[in-house]
Design brief:
heterotrimer, A mainly alpha, B alpha+beta, C alpha/beta, B: 3 domains, five-stranded antiparallel β-sheet, 12 strands, elongated, C: alpha/beta, GMP Synthetase, Chain A, domain 3, four-stranded mixed β-sheet, 11 helices, 15 strands, globular
């Protein structure tokens, strides 16, 4: 069996924790805590440690099994199948959000006249192609693309830091203070609960399983630093009024980027980071869903992946008929749906705990 | 024995070239058969006939004992006789099922000469020849160790080409050798004409456009890879050897790198990787920028490009395709023409064609620049298969650019990346030192570390990891 | 194999290259001038003539100006397509000039359009046009007038400090932030005739007609009130840290002047106990000295520094007080400052801000100048006097 290097896990974690900020978390932040967004973001990193610890705990149970096999092993075939399906359904809500978000962005900023289904299906085609190649290829592609992404993040953040106006963060903790903690919880559940998908890679599949925890934590920290940089630059450069005005303020702020004094107008290139991030995230999600409906035959798996991909497009088209529905969805419905993953975490941990105590008794 | 002679005569349709002689020693007739075209006549007269003259008791053992040829082979079957006869051996038919083949081959190959395809400014200048024995000699000369193992094969139903699998036993991975061994053994084909046939039979051709097998003309290159743990396939009648498996990074390494300091090598490598990106992406990005993402260019540059394109009737994509096509035609004709005519004709053709096309308003001057930089960049890669793969993906990027602009380029890049990552040949991932990251080889990829710090081999290629402990005692 | 071919076919069928636009099908738009007459927008759009960058053949003027009319801005832009053979490409727009007649009515109504459409970058600059048809004038050296104007603004801002560059995002921010008032640079034409729109205008050594940058335009409640004078403009830029260098010319004797060029200007503005503190620090060179001030004398230099500092302080003080008295518009963002730094006071005074609070708030100004260089001359050269 081919092994996965710990760097690949780290890059998956970074991409998963940063990508959701674009369009989704920032939108919740500016609506929820407005000028105190930086504090909400900071708090969400603290809250996010809880799912991270849970993931590390779960990963230590039967180190050679994938997430779905772990569930099947713990709960038996029937209940396990139900839980797997439940997890997939929860992940579908995230997948359609990401899919609509990124395609809506592409169509509103790059390709104004292209129909949604065209850009969406080409994007999905690549996702299905990659997901069929297995987690090995996904993680390696993620690692290589992350190099490009980190380069873009660095340009993004470092060239915007000089435009940050500290007064844009004032008044400190005077307005909108009630919403800081609820927003932080919302964001951290969006950003960090779906990290459960990282468990698709069993701990033993690493070249150095010892570094598993370390790579998760490093990925988490780097992801937090990058996403905090994005929040700070967006809110600090534009100011709360403009941030609230634009749909994709994270993108608008990139128009200010000026590299080496002459490279300007490169916002479209820098914003490729979001497309790359969403692409990798979606691939991981589609792969996880395919594995949840666990069938050993490879050919059928290919079909399942294809069906999942197509049905994601169909669901997206059916649910999100326009922007307004999407905005309402991510602000009012999505955080609650996604926090349903907590249930799975808790179920898994309780069951593992019980089985461990049983083992130690006998 | 007459039966054998008759059979040969029958099968060869009484060919004049096959010469049958009889030599009587004491009571016994010895039959001597050889093919005129393949043997050296002095060898026959010097060794075979003269030594036979000295033999008084014509027993099989005595003949073998007394014969003066430096190489002989004891044969038992008819098939063997035919093989050695056709390889330029002289056959002695002693008695039933006791035949001897004596080496009397005429030297049909040219001598060791300088390489034609690989230019080097420093380093040894000898190249492989068409003679497999000589080629093995060239390698053996450089590796004076018992660990240099050679497996021999005879391939091809009619050509009966001899081939060799060469590796250093204590370095090369056993699995790898076995895998290559079975791959070669499974070959069942009418004729092996050159390394190209064997390469296409071994390589999974259609899965990856990029080559997995490196071909080398110089023993220097072959030795270098042998010492890394790669294996080499050698074929008689072909001055190129095959090195396998190769990874993407191998195509960025050249022999000169060994003669330069690590910093200057690193700079050259970075330039090579940039060139790789340029030759792949430039036409695609140009199309993407000028037909979709015009906002990226500064206003002055955009207006000047727009001015140049003002009178061009084609779309940018078609324009680029036309220019790339005409470059390919030029290159192809350049290859076919004899060398004294080619450079003059191609330069004149290119200059006149380019100049005239611009002034006639068929293409814009900037497109000439784009195609020129693309083509020049593609020329730094010597392996033709690599350049061909680049050409295919270049057109892919152009299509991506014309469909979705910069976004299409990104999608195409992801596709290329998936293909490269997912492909592995004989257990070695194609993007090997990068994904999965292998520290030992990463030190000799985009950045080259000083040779004293390159202490280890790629663990996928070799079980014997340590290769260099120079300077360790001073630490 | 068939599957793959089908797939590729589908890709090609799906994509009709919807957004494909060749360079010779677009008209690159560099600037827009907006006016409103009788409830109808009239826009002048400047479009680059790409052939003009080929200097070998005479192909007409470097740019063209189209006029469009419509009840909304979008409609006005669309109506241009009835005249232009090409698709207007707005992504390279550099300037937006709003005519003062429209600005006097209500400038905020144009903001929404430019924020909403994705294909204009919101980083272009906004100006108030004091006269009509500014974009029509041909300009020498930089032959596309929008770029010429932009460069003039940059130089002016850098060396004179009268005008400043306001991008559309800043402008929108001033409009959206309830505590800020709008302030914009202005531009006007000089000696505008029919001839100024022809290419001959730039072919003489004496340029007859040109644009000229004006002083800053002050707004209140999105309506243009008036233009500041030169000193007030400089003061605004000075306080807002929007200037790289200014000239300070002070009368030292009767009809004799001394000129200092201040660089490295840094101003801080803070609030405490319902008071605004402004601290302006700069360092500079003496570039002209008509009086006989001995600059290499430590004492005289210190004295001069002190005098100059006081001079600057007085200028700033009078300018601020004039603005407060004449326009009652908080362009300096004092209320925003109080809102951000002193939320408690803000709640007290926000309702009565323009009913006296703004007029009466105490403003403490500190200024200091360090004279670093005095040019190539050692001391005063008017020894005869």
């Amino acid at each position: 069996m081919k092994k996965i290097s710990y760097l690949e896990i780290t890059s998956l974690v970074i991409i998963q924790t940063v990508t959701t900020f674009f369009g989704i978390s920032v939108s919740i932040l500016k609506e929820g805590s407005g000028i105190n967004s930086w504090l909400s973001a900071l708090l969400s990193y603290v809250i996010g440690i809880i799912p991270l610890i849970m993931i590390i705990y779960i990963s230590n149970y039967k180190k050679d099994l994938k997430l779905n096999d772990k569930i099947n092993n713990l709960f038996g075939k029937k209940i396990g199948f139900c839980i797997n399906i439940l997890l997939s359904l929860l992940l579908v809500s995230l997948a359609i959000t990401l899919l609509y978000n990124i395609n809506n962005f592409i169509l509103s900023q790059f390709l104004y006249r292209t129909p949604f289904i065209v850009s969406c299906s080409l994007f999905m085609l690549l996702i299905i192609y990659n997901a069929n190649k297995g987690i090995n290829v996904i993680s390696k592609v993620a690692m290589l693309l992350l190099i490009l992404n980190i380069f873009l993040y660095t340009i993004n953040i470092s060239s915007l830091v000089q435009y940050i106006d500290i007064s844009n963060f004032y008044p400190l903790l005077k307005v909108n203070t009630n919403n800081i903690i609820p927003t932080a919880i919302k964001i951290s559940s969006i950003n960090y609960l779906p990290l459960i998908t990282i468990l698709v890679i069993p701990k033993d599949k690493l070249t150095t399983p010892k570094k598993y925890n370390k790579s998760l934590i490093i990925g988490y920290i780097i992801g937090a630093i990058i996403s905090f940089g994005l929040v700070i630059t967006t809110f600090g450069v534009l100011g709360i009024d403009l941030v609230n005005t634009f749909e994709y303020s994270e993108y608008i702020v990139l128009r200010k980027v000026k590299l080496l004094g002459f490279l300007e107008r490169i916002e479209n290139i820098i914003s490729l980071q979001w497309i790359i991030g969403s692409y990798i995230y979606l691939t991981v999600l589609v792969y996880t869903m395919t594995k949840s409906i666990s069938i050993k035959s490879k050919k059928i798996n290919t079909w399942i992946t294809t069906i999942i991909g197509i049905s994601l497009i169909v669901i997206t088209l059916l649910i999100f008929k326009d922007n307004t529905i999407f905005d309402n969805y991510i602000r009012n419905i999505f955080p609650y749906i996604i926090s349903g993953i907590t249930l799975i975490y808790i179920l898994l941990i309780i069951k593992i705990f019980i089985s461990k105590t049983n083992l130690s008794k006998t | 024995m007459n039966k054998i002679i008759n059979k040969i005569k029958n099968e060869t349709n009484n060919l004049d070239n096959v010469i049958y002689r009889k030599k009587r020693i004491l009571y016994k007739d010895l039959h001597i058969i050889y093919i005129d075209a393949l043997i050296a006549s002095d060898k026959i007269s010097d060794f075979v006939l003269r030594s036979l003259n000295r033999i008084h008791i014509p027993t099989y053992k005595n003949i073998i004992n007394k014969i003066a040829n430096f190489k002989y082979k004891e044969l038992t079957t008819y098939d063997e006789i035919i093989y050695y006869l056709n390889s330029g051996f002289t056959i002695l038919l002693v008695s039933k099922n006791k035949y001897i083949a004596l080496e009397t081959r005429r030297d049909l190959s040219r001598g060791v000469s300088t390489p034609i395809t690989e230019n080097t400014s420093r380093g040894p200048l000898d190249a492989f020849t068409e003679n497999i024995e000589m080629n093995i000699g060239l390698i053996k000369r450089r590796i004076k160790s018992n660990d240099l193992w050679i497996k021999k094969y005879v391939l091809g139903k009619y050509t009966q080409t001899s081939a060799g699998l060469i590796y250093i036993k204590s370095i090369a991975n056993k699995d790898l050798v076995e895998k290559v061994d079975t791959l070669i053994k499974n070959i069942d084909i009418d004729g092996i004409i050159g390394t190209g046939t064997i390469r296409n039979l071994i390589e999974k051709e259609n899965k990856n456009f990029f080559p997995n097998i490196l071909s080398a003309e110089k023993p220097y290159t072959a030795i270098k890879y042998l010492l890394q743990g790669n294996v080499i396939i050698m074929i008689d009648n072909d001055p190129f050897v095959l090195i396998l498996p190769s990874t993407l990074n191998d195509y960025f390494i050249s022999e000169e790198d060994d003669y330069n300091k690590s910093i200057s090598v690193s700079v050259t490598r970075i330039v090579r990787y940039i060139t790789f990106a340029i030759t792949l992406l430039t036409p695609g990005i140009y199309i993407a920028i000028t037909t979709y993402n015009q906002e990226i260019l500064p206003t002055q540059l955009l207006t000047s490009i727009a001015a140049q394109r003002e009178n061009v009737p084609f779309s940018t994509f078609v324009e680029a395709l036309l220019m790339i096509l005409s470059f390919e035609i030029l290159r192809e004709s350049d290859l076919k023409l004899p060398s004294f005519a080619s450079s003059a004709i191609s330069i004149v053709g290119a200059l006149i064609l380019g100049e005239a096309a611009v002034s006639a308003g068929i293409v814009s001057p900037i497109m000439i620049i784009v195609v020129a930089i693309t083509s020049i960049s593609s020329l730094i890669f010597v392996e033709p298969q690599f350049t061909n793969a680049l050409r295919i993906y270049r057109i892919g990027f152009m299509i991506g650019g014309v469909i979705f602009g910069i976004y299409g380029i990104l999608l195409m890049a992801i596709l290329l990346l998936i293909n490269l990552v997912s492909y592995d040949f004989l257990g070695i991932p194609y993007l090997s030192p990068f994904a999965p990251p292998i520290t030992a080889d990463l030190k000799d990829s985009i950045i080259k570390f000083p040779t004293i710090k390159l202490k280890k081999r790629n663990h996928l290629l070799s079980n014997n990891i340590t290769k260099n402990i120079t300077g360790d005692e001073y630490d | 194999m068939i599957k793959k071919i089908l797939l590729i076919l589908i890709i090609f069928l799906l994509t009709g290259c919807y957004d494909h636009k060749e360079l010779n099908t677009i008209a690159i738009m560099t600037a827009t001038e907006i006016n409103k007459i009788n409830n109808e927008y009239i826009i002048n759009v400047q479009v680059v003539n790409p052939q003009s960058s080929d200097k070998t053949v005479n192909v007409g003027s470097p740019f063209f100006v189209y006029e469009g009319k419509g009840i909304t801005l979008h409609e006005a832009y669309r109506n241009i397509k009835t005249q232009s053979s090409r698709f207007l490409y707005p992504n390279h727009m550099q300037l937006l000039i709003v005519n003062e007649k429209l600005a006097k009515e209500d400038i905020s109504e144009i903001i929404d359009f430019y924020l909403r459409i994705p294909d204009t970058r919101t980083e272009f600059n906004v100006l108030i046009g004091k006269s009509d048809n500014i974009l029509n004038i041909t300009t020498p050296i930089d032959d596309i007038s929008a770029i010429s104007i932009l460069e003039t603004m940059r130089t002016n801002n850098k060396y004179l400090g009268i005008t400043n560059l306001v991008t559309f995002n800043d402008f929108a921010n001033m409009n959206l932030n309830k505590n800020l008032e709008i302030i914009l640079p202005s531009i006007e034409t000089v000696d505008y005739t029919e001839e100024s729109t022809t290419i001959e205008n730039t072919e003489k050594t004496e340029i007859k007609s040109l644009y000229k940058l004006g002083n800053l335009a002050i707004f209140k409640d999105n309506k243009l009130l008036d233009y500041l004078d030169k000193d007030e403009s400089i003061t605004y830029n000075l306080i807002k840290n929007k200037v790289a260098s200014i000239l300070i010319t002070k009368e030292c004797e009767k009809d004799k002047y001394i000129t200092a060029e201040a660089t490295e200007i840094k101003s801080e503005i803070s609030t405490k106990n319902k008071e605004i503190n402004i601290n302006v620090k700069m360092s500079g060179n003496i570039n002209e000295n008509m009086c006989n001030i001995k600059l290499n004398n430590e004492k005289e230099l210190k004295k001069l520094e002190k005098e100059l500092s006081k001079y600057i302080k007085d200028k700033i003080e009078t300018s601020i007080n004039n603005i407060r008295k004449n326009y009652n518009s908080d362009i300096f963002g004092f209320l925003d400052l109080i809102y951000k730094k002193d939320y408690k006071t803000y709640k007290e005074i926000k309702d009565t801000w323009y009913d006296g609070e703004f007029q009466n708030i105490k403003i403490n100004i500190k200024s200091s100048i360090d004279i670093i260089g005095k040019g190539n001359v050692q001391e005063g050269n008017n020894e005869k006097n």
